[in-house]
């Protein structure tokens, strides 16, 4: 099959399973540090300013992701050779990302942690850009909701397994980074080693220039609205999760916040797994995407409101289940919708890399908003109230996308 052809043959379960495993490598590499290792490491380095330190480190890492993801996507769109366009980026991005996690065991300053985390973000975002393009490259439109549901599960399963890995299987920041690095390296291998990646002919390579990265909202309004709605929902997600460990410690008052965090993640994951593949399959069968995205936005808004008005442990557990169910619907259906509004076949990875800015840029903006809110502008009720507002807007505005039902 031509690398640029629109796929028409359904992918098999083995292909989906291998893609899901390698996606798990990416998200375990991202979220294990963000949820557990970075907060603990920075609390030890700068105990009096842990919130600010975490905001700087995660914000700078996300800024690197904003730049790298579309750039790596554009380069993979132009990669020729017998190993294909995407697989080399997937393989080496994952392996070097694992190396970066090992290097994070070394820093003893906030600046050193920031440099190490930026390196990890660069490598894993190069990997993510190529993996994201696998769906429009290989999966027909009528199967994309279900496949997107399966590959969305690792986004939370990575949090669960990563948290268990560094709190139950091993203990300590150094052991945690080393265990995470091994897991990322091993999980990276299956998809690029055991699936096909159609090579790109040299005469099919798209042009490459700074203009490559500009997609006119006037010419492609649906793409622009898809980007905007993704940005808002992910901003809400980033605002709601950035300080979750500190929320359990300082607002809920749990004696064992690490265990509490693990319980919430498990509940959240259960909610997500209960909805994501089911919602994806139903949207495939009906051909409708937008109503599912709106529903997901409303459900996630309810979860944020619960945390804003009642910061207690029982409410936090309920909110985790509600949030997981809503986000599961969103992950599958919105991902499928976005693949249907990409401007060109020649720039799939680059265009999805631009969409992925809507995932990464909120990680830059969220610390700038959340840090001052938590410390001096109303605390966690205001933070989760803002989370509710932006998430709801992200769901409702999807109706501005006209070309998808």
Automatic annotation (TrEMBL):
All residue ranges annotated as the Major facilitator superfamily (MFS) profile domain in the record: 164-405
Transmembrane segments: 15-34, 54-76, 88-106, 112-135, 147-170, 176-196, 223-248, 260-280, 292-310, 316-342, 354-374, 380-399
Keywords (A to Z) from UniProt: Membrane, Transmembrane, Transmembrane helix
PROSITE patterns for this protein: MFS
Domain of life, per lineage: Bacteria
Pfam families reported in the protein's UniProt record: MFS_1
Subcellular localization, as worded in the UniProt entry: Cell membrane
Membrane topology: Multi-pass membrane protein
InterPro entries in the record: MFS, MFS_dom, MFS_trans_sf
PANTHER family in the record: MAJOR FACILITATOR SUPERFAMILY (MFS) PROFILE DOMAIN-CONTAINING PROTEIN, PTHR23528
Name of the protein: MFS transporter
Native source species: Luedemannella flava
């Amino acid at each position: 099959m031509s690398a640029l052809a629109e796929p028409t043959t359904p992918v098999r379960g083995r292909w989906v399973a291998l893609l899901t495993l390698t996606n798990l490598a990416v998200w375990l590499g991202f979220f294990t540090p963000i949820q557990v290792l970075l907060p603990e490491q920075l609390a030890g380095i700068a105990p009096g300013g842990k919130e600010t330190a975490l905001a700087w480190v995660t914000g700078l890492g996300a800024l690197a992701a904003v730049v790298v993801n579309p750039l790596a996507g554009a380069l993979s769109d132009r990669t020729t050779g017998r190993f294909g366009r995407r697989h080399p980026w997937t393989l080496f991005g994952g392996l070097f990302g694992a190396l970066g996690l090992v290097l994070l065991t070394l820093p003893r300053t906030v600046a050193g942690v920031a440099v190490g985390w930026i390196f990890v973000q660069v490598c894993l975002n190069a990997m993510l850009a190529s993996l994201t393009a696998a769906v429009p490259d290989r999966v027909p439109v009528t199967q994309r909701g279900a496949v997107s549901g399966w590959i969305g599960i690792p986004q939370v399963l990575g949090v669960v397994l990563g948290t268990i890995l560094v709190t139950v299987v091993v203990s300590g920041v150094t052991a945690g980074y080393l265990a995470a690095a091994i897991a990322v390296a091993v999980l990276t291998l299956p998809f690029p080693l055991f699936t096909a990646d159609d090579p790109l002919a040299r005469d099919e390579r798209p042009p490459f220039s700074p203009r490559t990265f500009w997609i006119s909202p006037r010419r492609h309004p649906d793409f622009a609205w898809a980007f905007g709605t993704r940005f808002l929902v992910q901003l809400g997600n980033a605002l709601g999760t950035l300080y979750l460990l500190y929320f359990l410690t300082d607002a809920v008052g749990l004696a064992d916040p690490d265990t509490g965090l693990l319980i919430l993640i498990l509940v959240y994951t259960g909610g997500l797994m209960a909805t994501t593949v089911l919602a994806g399959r139903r949207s495939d069968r009906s051909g409708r995407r937008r109503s599912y995205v709106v529903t997901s936005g409303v459900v996630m808004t309810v979860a944020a409101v619960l945390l804003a008005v009642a910061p207690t442990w029982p409410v936090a557990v309920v909110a985790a289940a509600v949030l997981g169910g809503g986000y599961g619907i969103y992950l599958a259906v919105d991902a499928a919708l976005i693949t249907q509004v990409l401007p060109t076949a020649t720039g799939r990875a680059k265009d999805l890399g631009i969409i992925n800015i809507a995932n990464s840029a909120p990680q830059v903006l969220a610390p700038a908003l959340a840090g001052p809110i938590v410390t001096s502008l109303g605390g966690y009720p205001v933070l989760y109230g803002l989370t509710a507002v932006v998430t709801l807007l992200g769901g409702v505005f999807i109706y501005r996308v006209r070309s998808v039902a």
